[in-house]
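Hi all, long-time lurker, first post. I run a small reading group and we've been trying to get comfortable going from sequence to structure in the token notation. Rather than ask abstract questions, I figured I'd post a concrete chain and ask someone more experienced to write out its structure so we can walk through it together at our next meeting. Sequence below, copied exactly:
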Amino acid sequence: MIGLSINYQFNNENLLITALTHSSYANEHKVDSYERLEFLGDSILSYIVSDYIYNNFTELPEGGLSKLRSAIVCERSLEQVANKLEFGKYLRLSKGEDMTGGRTRPSILADVFESVLAAIYLDGGMDPARKFVFDFLGENIENARKGKVIFEDYKTKLQELVQQKDSHATYVGVSESGPEHNKVFVAAVHIDGKFLADGKGRSKKDAEQNAAKNALMLLLRNNGEV
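-- Answer (accepted) --
Happy to help. Here is the structure in token form:
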């Protein structure tokens, strides 16, 4: 049995094993990786957090709710919790990914938090999934509401800025390169369909955040003009 301390006992431990299997290991050993689970977990996490803050922070307008949710579910927040739970110790990685720091890579740890959440949901339903989120993200939820934890969310900051001019920011994946264990992603941000800036990262989410950061710097230099 895997010795994770997540306050949940799996009926089907194979779900948990898959949730801890990186694509680099999966490709070498011809097994499933956590990627599909991470996709599901991302949506489940967004729903659980959105439902909670909507019902418990009634003083916040829509913009405040979006900003709060972004701070709670961002990569740095999930990585912080995944580190506390020692997910890195139990990851199944290829030798190459392991040697290049995969067990401590923020993008991987954040993804695994979401994949484990999805595994719990598929194994036991929404109630234990919700309990898992509140058990381990509850402190971040409260701290984010009080502004005690500052996770820079450049995408939200950029959207708030461009909305002042009735514009909208969208993100497009440009490329990914490098070996499976050491990929680099490039994303571009467009304002009303017009390219503004791009950014690189070790994950798609990180690349989008860096693109938004570069766009903000450009807009500030241009006094907000695209």
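A couple of things your group might point at:
DSSP finds eleven helices and three strands in the chain.
The beta strands are 169-177, 184-191, 194-201.
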